[in-house]
Structures are given as structure tokens and as C-alpha cells.
Amino acid sequence: MRSLVVGGVRGSGGALVDLVVVDGVITDVAAAGSAVVPPEVERVDGRGLLALPGFINAHAHVDKSWWGQPWVSYGGEPTTQGRIAHERAERDKYGIPSVDGTKAVLREFLRHGTTATRTHVDVDLGVGLRGIANVHEAAAALNGAVEVEIVAFPQDGVLRRPGVLELLDQAAAEGATSIGGLDPASIDRDPVGQLDALFEIAVRRNVGIDIHLHDRGDLGGFQYELIAERTVAGGLSGRVNVSHGFALGELSPQRRSEMVYQLGEAGVSWTTVAPVNSAPLPWREMRTAGVAIGLGTDGIRDLWSPYGDGDLLQIARGFARLHGLRDDADLTYAIELATTAAAPFVHREVHGLTPGARADIVLIDAENVPDVLVRAPRREFVIAGGQVVLRDGVLQV
Ligand SMILES: [Zn+2]
């Protein structure tokens, strides 16, 4: 058995504790100095740093970044279709997708304390399923430190590209936990057709669905309804997610309330990158209705946008600022969205500094959890599945 003690850290309650790790799992949380372990066991001196669970990035694109390469000036058109076309035309020039590029992104995730992610991976007629294979290879090269869950993502459309449905079906058969979708109305111009086809695969292959929905206003709202109806009909409660879904913040108050209730009843969850130009969300209503909210970085430094550094804390802070969160309970809630509350997005039963959880531990020099959110300080130590992957701010992998 491989053991580790992360000693003398502050838990959320403020008291100093030792976290005992055996074979990558937290087995005990004891008062500092009281854990009984053999003297030869490796020990990380926590120095009174604040301990948080590893961050869970619920919406990423680890296959398509130019991270680690010289700066790439943005050259796309400012529409979804314009960006798709730009990416397809330019990606080969930057070796996208590749194992090394994916590894560079996953290392940045670890540097910032992200130890699990749900990543959309492009599946199209050009790359086929090669991007998915790259992601598996890159994750394995880092000893599985970042636990990666795959969404097979039809970035270039579904029905408008004959052959893509078959690729999604194959990806689902080969282990993708979800298949993706993309603006069924504005990209395929056939919302019922795209959604029916995706739900048919999901039900038959027993996988989830995670749909990028950029369509705004009532057009987006209409697609929310189609998704919720099919989630109920297909028995997929808890396995369907809407990504971005800007429309939810743009509907009239009454329609929005009805929609939130419908999503809660259907068991549809929701992920956001909390962009600065989106309408605030009815997050309190969503919480009451049981609509799970996940935070993600989306793509970072890719052919869609030069922004993003892979730090989920920046996204949590963006969520807090977008919604005007100020009191300690709300600031703490934003951190929970990035950590414990995100467990379902990577199919974890338990995630936290608690016995039985994967040993994903982040140590930060901060006064308390709200202080972490507002300052987003450097991560001092990161332990991922029991491996020390960041020590004194320096990556070890
Ligand atoms: Zn995305």
C-alpha cells in the first residue's frame, strides 16, 4: 500500500488536522499530530495552509488548445459558425489535436488545483475519434492525476455532416460517458431532428448527453423545452446537461421560472463559464429547484479565444462577480460549485476532504474560503489521487 500524510493543514472548520491517504484515497481526518501511521510513511508538511478539495472543471476542451506554443493571434469571425470554420481551416497548422498539446493543458489544470474534469473532445469527419485517443494517452502519461471524463463533441454539427452520428455512436460504444450536441436549431437548423438522434444513441448506449447551447432568447428557450421533454421520455434524469445555455438568463421572469422548474423536474443540469457579457442567472431559484450547476473553463488559448489559463478559481470568482455575491455564505457557495458540488459532473459519489474520497487536496495560503475566492492565490501544494503533483508551487509532473 502507498501511504501519505498531509499533516497540519486547516480544514474549513479552522482546526489543524492531518489527512491520511492510503492508495490514493483519504482514509482518515484526524486532529493534527494524532494520526497513527508508521514513521516511514511520506509526509507533506501542511504548515497551517488552508486545505480544499481538488477543483472539478465541469466544462473543458483539453484537446484543442495551443497552450505551450508561441502566441497565436485571433483570426476568427465573431459568430459560432465563423469560429467553427476558422478552427477547421487552421488547426492542422498548430498540430491540433495532439497528445502533447492535451498534456500541456492538463498540466496547467494540475498547477491550479484541478484534479478532475469533464472535457468535450471534438469528433468530426476530419479527426474522427483521434482526439479522444489523444486525451486518453495524455491523461495516462500524467499517471491519471487528472481524472478525465469524455464527452464526444460534434463541434462541426451533427445532421448537417452525414457520418457524424455514426462517430458519436462509436465513441459511446468505446467508453465516452456522454455524447455532445451543438445548437440544434442554428447549426443543424433541425432542433427536433438533432435532439431525437442524440437521445436515441444515449438511450441505446446507456450514456449521458451534454449539449452546447449558444442560441439566445426564445429560440434557446424552445430548445431547453425539447431537451427537458426528451430527458423525461428517455429516462435520462441526472444524465443530461446544458452547457452555456445563455438563454436561461434572457427569458421573461415568468417563463424563466417555469423553465427552471421544468429543468429541475426533468433532472437536467447546467454548466457555465460565467462569461462577463452574459445575463445573470437565476442561480438561487436553480438551487431551490435542484438544478445542479457546474463551472468550467471552456477552451483555453484556442482558435476560438485567446483567453483562459485553466484556473477554475478565476471562473468561480467570475461567477461570484457576475451575480454580485458578497456575503461569506454566498462566496463559499461559489467555491463549493468548483469543488464538492461538482462531484456528479464526473460521476463521483463523494468528493471532499472526507474518508472514502479520492485524495484530491489543494493547499493554499489563505485566511479562509471566501478569501480564496476573492484573491485566487497561487496553489502551494496539489495532491491528485494521492500523488503530490505540485510542491511549493512547482509542478512535479
Ligand atoms: Zn465548450
Explained architecture:
This protein is α/β, with parallel strands linked by helices and 397 residues long. The protein has 2 domains: 3-53 and 352-395, Urease, subunit C, domain 1, CATH 2.30.40.10; 55-346, TIM Barrel (Alpha-Beta Barrel). The protein is 32% helix and 23% strand. The protein has 11 helices and 17 strands. It has an 8-stranded parallel β-sheet. It has a 5-stranded antiparallel β-sheet with strand order 5-14-15-16-17, with helices on one face. A 4-stranded mixed β-sheet has the order 3-2-1-4, with no helix packed on it. Helix 3 (130-141) links the parallel strand 7 (114-122) and strand 8. The radius of gyration is 21 Å and the shape is globular. The two termini are 21 Å apart. 52% of the residues are buried.
